UniProtKB/TrEMBL annotation, chains A, B:
Pfam families: cNMP_binding. This is Crp/Fnr family transcriptional regulator. InterPro entries: cNMP-bd_dom (IPR000595), cNMP-bd_dom_sf (IPR018490), RmlC-like_jellyroll (IPR014710). Residues 30-117 form the Cyclic nucleotide-binding domain. It comes from the Bacteria.
Amino acid sequence: MYSQINKNISRYVSFDQQELEIFNSLLEFKSVPKKTMLLQGGEMCNFEAFVVKGCVRKYYIDANGFEVILQFAIENAWVSDISFSIYEDKPSRVFIETLEDCEFFMFSPESKEKLFSKAPQFERAFRILMQRSLAVTQDRLFHTISKTATDKYTEFLLQYPALPQRVAQHYIASYLGISAEFLSKIRNKIAKY
Amino acid sequence: MYSQINKNISRYVSFDQQELEIFNSLLEFKSVPKKTMLLQGGEMCNFEAFVVKGCVRKYYIDANGFEVILQFAIENAWVSDISFSIYEDKPSRVFIETLEDCEFFMFSPESKEKLFSKAPQFERAFRILMQRSLAVTQDRLFHTISKTATDKYTEFLLQYPALPQRVAQHYIASYLGISAEFLSKIRNKIAKY
DNA sequence: CGCTTGCATTGAACTAGGACAAGAAATCAA
DNA sequence: TTGATTTCTTGTCCTAGTTCAATGCAAGCG
């Protein structure tokens, strides 16, 4: 049951059996139906969720109600809103919603503190995870600015080949920063070859 | 001399005098003229630089030679390419260049390791710094996708009121993801009120 | 001092992508 | 099964922003 998450956390730092057991004892397993909100804009985010099974989207809403998907998290990914909510007291404008029936391990800030005091090695592992998210987000920013919509979509397909079968197309459009209609036209054009 | 950087690192975690001295002893002070490359695309980035004085830009170049500025770092900011270079062995496509005469504290991965082993509290401080960079980058991604060019520019002015006097306008355009000409037109329009 | 080189501005022509509308297809609820 | 709701497609028109000049301006350099 814990093998997925243990493999994930051991990716850049190795832990012995005992350390992993401490870690696992601090996780809360949670099964959630599709279309459930894990976080509502304005709430404080008091978890980091590891996706065991299923798919969620994390999105912002701006002042005019315009929605932008920041992240799809599928199996073996982490999702949370670390932005300003855990360490500062500002509420976030971020929403997190399941798109399929999901299974998670929920990890709370309090558990995190406990973990770091009992097994400080984990601080390092979480720092590296954070670093990787930053790298991914920077890359995404670069692509968003410099590529055409068609390029962005074809690269998206390479990166997440299974997602178009799993999530609605207009969500993908929102992730890419283009309109749903235009994505449809792009697909149409691509299909002709 | 060390007060700026000590204040910066103590922002979310507090350290005693002794810990700060260990930290300071591991930094290398460096004075660099303007237009110097700190990192050339393809090189491994083996530092994190804290800007004591001056201004640098960090940018990507894509396959067609198109340049995008990811970050301006001015006084009291950190700049580095953590993306894939320090912990994985892929070279980065990131460039870092000084735009003014600069003073830095350079912090190497080896020093970082030493610091964390001597004073593990710092691991936490660096994790939080990382977290803040991620939050800032996510916000920037969101704005890039959802705002008009004019909005982006006026918000940029609020966030970095001093920068337009310090850096060339076409760099700001590149940061905002718009053409230099269009930024000029936006400024012209704004000036009319 | 003049010369070159880079930077900002402006205008005209062009295009990638958006907004709107309406129909077709698919999914869901009961 | 059927109606209802959501999703996807397609067409038309429209606009924010680009590209490509051309021009003026300021700065660094010999």
